[in-house]
Amino acid sequence: MIRPILIHPDPRLKKVCAPVPDLSDELRELAKDMLETMYDAPGIGLAAPQLGVQKRLIVLDCVKDDDKPGRPLIMFNPEVLKVSDDRSVYEEGCLSIPDQFADVERPAAVKVGWIDQNGNPQEEEFDGLWSTCVQHEIDHLDGKLFIDYLKPLRRQMITRKMVKLKRERARA
After folding, report:
1. CA distance 164 to 9
2. Is residue 109 in a domain?
3. Checking CA distances to 39, which of 1, 45, 49, 159 falls within 20 to 30 Å?
4. What's 36's domain CATH number?
């Protein structure tokens, strides 16, 4: 089921999410809905708080080549275990901040640990777009948006655009 995505500014996007104590069928269904919502948007990552659910759950699939099969990942309680000294800059966007993009500098590679939908612990090292995406989504779980990395004036400008967009959508 495709669910509505919250648009910034919304106080639910700024809250730190609680860890998932144990997996339930309801949480697995939420993860499935998140993937469907993410693909429909279209996006490459989505965090539960973007749907108004304050749980530590993210989904991502950074395969952009139509000739290759997708690689959907569902991560419960993801955490960055290790970061590289190397840094990289990617132009980031966010489904909760539509049509706004900015360069964000982050560690070029990260090692992430999480629980998969079957309750098994997983660890993997990510680089490139995958590294940026997983860090961006984990930030959501800590109440942080990509615009929080920007200078205040640019952040305020984007926030004003989102307020205007929300007003226009409410009238429609």
Report:
1. 11
2. yes
3. 159
4. 3.90.45.10
Q: Is 63 exposed, middle or buried (0-12, 13-18, 19+ CB in 10 A)?
A: middle
CB of 50 closer than 8 Å to CB of 5 = yes
Two tokens at 27?
Answer: 């949480």
- For residue 74, the enclosing domain spans 11-171
Q: What is the pTM of this model?
A: 0.96
Other C-beta atoms lying within 10 Å of the C-beta of residue 5: 19
Of the listed 91, 105, 137, 168, which one is catalytic? 137
pLDDT tens profile 51-81: 999 999 999 999 988 788 899 999 999 999 9
CA 169 to chain centre: 23
Place of tokens 């955490």: 79
Residues 134/126, Cβ–Cβ less than 8 Å:
yes
**Which amino acid is residue 119, in one-letter code?**
G
Asked if the structure places residue 59 within a domain, the reply is yes
137 catalytically annotated:
yes
